[in-house]
Design a protein that fits this description.
alpha/beta; Quinone Oxidoreductase, Chain A, domain 1; Rossmann fold; 2 domains; 7-stranded mixed β-sheet; 6-stranded parallel β-sheet
Amino acid sequence: MKALICEEPGRLAVISRPDPVPGAGEVLVRIRRVGVCGTDFHIFQGKHPFLAYPRVMGHELSGTVESAPEGSRLKAGENVYIVPYLSCGVCVSCRRGVTNACQNIQVVGVHRDGGMAEYLCVPEQNVIPVGGASLDEAAMIEFLAIGAHGVKRGGVTAQDRVLVVGSGPIGIAAIIAAKARGADVTVMDMREDRLAFTRDRLGADHLLRADAEAEAEAKRLTGGDFYDVVIDATGNSAAMHRGFGLVAHAGRYVLVSVVPGEITFSDPEFHKRETTLLASRNAQPDDFAEVVRFMEAGKVPSLALNTHRGALADGPELFKEWLRPETGVIKAILEV
């Protein structure tokens, strides 16, 4: 089979390698679409902390079942998406059903070779029929599920005013999930083009430019209350620190972002507001299912999200192009 491999930071190559052979309980999937995400770009740039090269990337995956174990619920030729988080099933998190925080988690395309290839073997429980979603949509379910998980962690309801900080793909996913729950959503970012996209394509209710006047404008927009739920999706420690001051009294602050090092905050302010601070990591099966329901209900503007696409064989050149900010990539998809 053909595979796109990152041999070392900055160097991609299309190679031939033997077709994988499924083990006990595994499904052989013919990969059809691969969403390219920030993790893949970080691997390409040599910025990922949990990775050994060479590595076949790709964890936003859809395809068709090539073969399944005897007695499987899956059938050959069925369109599926892949949940790329392989949990151990025995650690304390798994025993509690929090498989996304598994102590021994293996992420396809990060800890082990992923789906930028023609075929991939995955445990049966990680292969899910796409329902009413197209293959293109199914390749976007994973990143949308991360946003949906953050919104779930924040307990967002239709009565909440939500601030999403950062309007890259994960921020976009959180906006879609929060709007689907009926919340009033404000988006904060430094880029005018991204802010306009969230208003015009996602239905964001209010926009905040991340400048020196942002706190004052947020206070004005909320009548001095600030936000019931703040979700940070910036991946920027300064922005994460700033977000504590935008949470309403008795509000919730969800950090979908993760950065190396420490995040600090004013303890008196934290206690005065009785802020609830939540981490949000990966996603759970019900988050994936919720995204599929959003898609089936027409709440995901899939065509607008998929701004760029190309063939797997052209990956080495496309990665260089898509990394340029002026290219305007929101979600790029590789066709296999």
